[in-house]
Predict the 3D structure of the following.
Amino acid sequence: MALTVRPLTLADRADWQPLWQSYLAFYRTTLPQAQFDLTWARLHDEREPMFGLGAFEGERLLGIAHGIYHRSCWSAESSCYLQDLFTHESVRGRGVGRALIEALCARAKADGANRVHWLTHETNAEAMVLYNKLAERSGFVQYRKLL
């Protein structure tokens, strides 16, 4: 598979949205169309600390990754949060997720970040096989309180 990872462009919207919808469905959630529009706009706004990458085989979008830069109390450099990572089911295990993570890490490093971090659900065993090869598992447990 000849894979290319590059920043998502405005022309990629029609291919990006079904992938992000599938990602959200995987986590049993939905969002209104207005949030899709807002997220897409933020991914392309240079004033926003967000960006999106796509993994392509020719013109076909196989996977997406969304990154968000943020400050840290523990470092002078920013960190990059890999918020969303999703690949077409048909290409899982073929290096698409790895390529997206590596490209996101390379971009974060080039942009001055000192680390990339991400979360996954404890039931996402398939993804954790890859993540355990690429990064250190921190041992932290996430808590959330919706406001």
In short: DSSP finds four helices and five strands in the chain. The first strand starts at residue 3 and ends at 7. The longest helix spans residues 96-110.
